[in-house]
């Protein structure tokens, strides 16, 4: 009898919500039946007319930006989404339709959660099946998300049967402040989402609408060096110290500013403070000051391999421009809607982490002889990550990409003799789990040139073969929409369709990682061999290869 009376008076109290009385519902997330560790519990404060969706850390003023909270008017089902961003910036947007447009299937299933009788609803969003359990035994409308909030008090939401958010406590509380009273700065929904997204990571701007062309008239500015007749641009940045524990990406946008051809592009890094000579000396003073590599074929290659006193370029990204994107979009073909720009994006975490808290030069090169050239924009983005890098050492070994091509630097033609490319390096201390980050592309743009002929790359360490593969891309036709100025041939193919030696017009060439195991301290010789094709008349083949050692 006492139990019945207790529940009777408890239920009566549920339906007598005063003006300053609300319910606080705490939700916990789990995945595949296992509670997610170290989670920020969802906290919802609900009155008879409003619900505030936030988290435990937000309520305790300990949340790190960016974070969001949602205020729902449960009478008319409108809501305001509020985001707190960096630099004390707050943005918000209002929506009066989204909740009412939810399509929920009401099902006959019932079960109890925290002692309350719950009903079931279901919906499908973006191919995900969502099951919603709600109760009407408490006179509020609330949910850990906006889903099902019009049905009553949602106590559980499960996505695809394996990801669950469930209420773990419900308690009556006295409100000390108005839950609808919050800073607002209303913008449209797309602006809101864009600002929120960009606030989740750090963006380091490098170049904005920079012209990479060939002209004797180019001039440097206080922030950007323009070198090699405008085909190379450099900017000095300070790599943030937190880069050591973050994921790092390089974004580059390119469009033609006059040049109609597919060109080799390279993004590279040069340390400002180095105990060795760097490639910067050649960029500033000319190729003659760079150390020479010779392999017996009679040519002299400037600045391509490491020596005891010289560090070659460290390549971040190898990319290739398409045929005349944007500038030549006036060339019309039926059913061809040309892209306006090409967007390259590549993770560079393992390389840039080695420069954390250092000043470096970030450079870009596009080989071309056109006064209009190419227009690029480039950023580096840092994304928080809890797992720190194990890499402790990086050693640039070689880079045959002739970044000073328009300044007379020799092409990478050293593979026409058996020795190929060879470099000696001394490890002062042992390294574990060593990998060679290797980028390779073949060039020679005529029928028998290595650009269009598969050639095996073989790599050796101390005379022993450690890796071999044939770099080749057969998906170049996928990039046709980026190539308005591509030549069209009688066989029905365009130049941009043809398979190439590890690249296509309009793409990034991804690095190949070669496992070398644990290496003790000592002297090492690395060698690259490629059966480079013979010259025909004025046409010749060349290979742009770069390699750096990464180890723990």
TrEMBL record:
Keyword Ligase tagged: no
Keywords for this protein: Disulfide bond, Signal
Domain named Peptide-N-glycosidase F N-terminal: residues: 203-382
GO molecular function annotations of the record: oxidoreductase activity, acting on paired donors, with incorporation or reduction of molecular oxygen, reduced ascorbate as one donor, and incorporation of one atom of oxygen
Listed InterPro entries: Cu2_ascorb_mOase-like_C (IPR014784), GLPGLI (IPR005901), PHM/PNGase_F_dom_sf (IPR008977), PngaseF_C (IPR015197), PngaseF_N (IPR015196), PngaseF_N_sf (IPR043022)
SMART domains hit by this protein: N-glycanase_N
Signal peptide: 1-22
NCBIfam families to which the protein is assigned, alphabetical: GLPGLI
Protein's UniProt name: Peptide-N-glycosidase F N-terminal domain-containing protein
Organism name: Flavobacterium indicum (strain DSM 17447 / CIP 109464 / GPTSA100-9)
């Amino acid at each position: 009898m006492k139990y019945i009376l207790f529940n009777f008076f408890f239920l009566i109290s549920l339906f007598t919500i005063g003006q300053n009385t609300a319910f606080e519902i705490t939700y916990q997330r789990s995945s595949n039946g296992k509670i997610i560790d170290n989670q920020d519990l969802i906290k919802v404060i609900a009155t008879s007319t409003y619900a505030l969706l936030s988290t435990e850390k937000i309520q305790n003023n300990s949340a790190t930006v960016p974070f969001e909270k949602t205020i729902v008017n449960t009478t008319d089902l409108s809501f305001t989404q509020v985001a707190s961003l960096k630099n004390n910036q707050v943005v918000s947007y209002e929506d009066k339709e989204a909740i009412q447009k939810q399509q929920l299937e009401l099902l006959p299933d019932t079960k109890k959660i925290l002692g309350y009788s719950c009903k079931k609803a279901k919906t499908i969003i973006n191919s995900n099946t969502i099951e919603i359990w709600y109760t009407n035994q408490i006179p509020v409308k609330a949910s850990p998300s906006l889903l099902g909030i019009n049905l009553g008090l949602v106590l559980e939401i499960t996505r695809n049967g394996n990801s669950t958010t469930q209420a773990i406590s419900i308690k009556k509380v006295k409100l000390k402040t108005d839950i609808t009273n919050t800073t607002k700065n209303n913008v449209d929904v797309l602006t809101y989402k864009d600002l929120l997204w960009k606030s989740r990571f750090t963006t380091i701007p490098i170049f904005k609408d920079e012209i990479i062309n060939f002209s004797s008239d180019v001039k440097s500015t206080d922030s950007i060096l323009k070198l090699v007749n405008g085909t190379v641009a450099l900017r000095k940045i300070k790599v943030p110290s937190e880069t050591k524990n973050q994921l790092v990406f390089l974004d580059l946008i390119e469009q033609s500013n006059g040049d109609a051809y597919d060109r080799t592009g390279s993004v590279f890094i040069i340390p400002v403070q180095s105990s060795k000579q760097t490639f910067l000396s050649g960029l500033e003073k000319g190729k003659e000051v760079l150390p020479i590599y010779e392999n017996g074929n009679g040519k002299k290659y400037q600045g391509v391999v490491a020596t005891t006193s010289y560090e070659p370029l460290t390549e971040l990204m190898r990319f290739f421009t398409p045929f005349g994107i944007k500038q030549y979009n006036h060339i019309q073909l039926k059913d061809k809607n040309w892209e306006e720009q090409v967007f390259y994006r590549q993770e560079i975490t393992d390389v840039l982490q080695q420069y954390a808290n250092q000043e470096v030069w970030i450079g870009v090169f596009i080989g071309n002889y056109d006064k209009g050239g190419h227009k690029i924009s480039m950023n580096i983005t840092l994304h928080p990550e809890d797992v720190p890098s194990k890499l402790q050492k990086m050693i640039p070994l070689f880079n045959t990409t002739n970044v000073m091509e328009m300044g007379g630097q020799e092409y990478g033609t050293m593979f026409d003799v058996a020795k190929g490319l060879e470099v000696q390096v001394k490890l002062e201390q042992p390294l574990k789990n060593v990998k060679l980050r290797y980028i390779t592309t073949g060039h020679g743009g005529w029928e028998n040139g290595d650009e269009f002929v598969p050639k095996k790359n073989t790599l050796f360490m101390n005379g022993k073969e450690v890796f071999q593969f044939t770099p080749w891309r057969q998906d170049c036709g996928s990039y046709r929409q980026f190539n308005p100025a591509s030549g069209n041939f009688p066989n029905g193919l365009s130049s941009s369709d043809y398979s190439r030696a590890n690249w296509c017009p309009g793409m990034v060439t991804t690095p190949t990682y070669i496992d070398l195991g644990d290496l003790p301290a000592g002297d090492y010789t690395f060698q690259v061999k490629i059966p480079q094709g013979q010259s025909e008349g004025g046409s010749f083949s060349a290979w742009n290869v770069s390699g750096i050692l990464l180890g723990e």
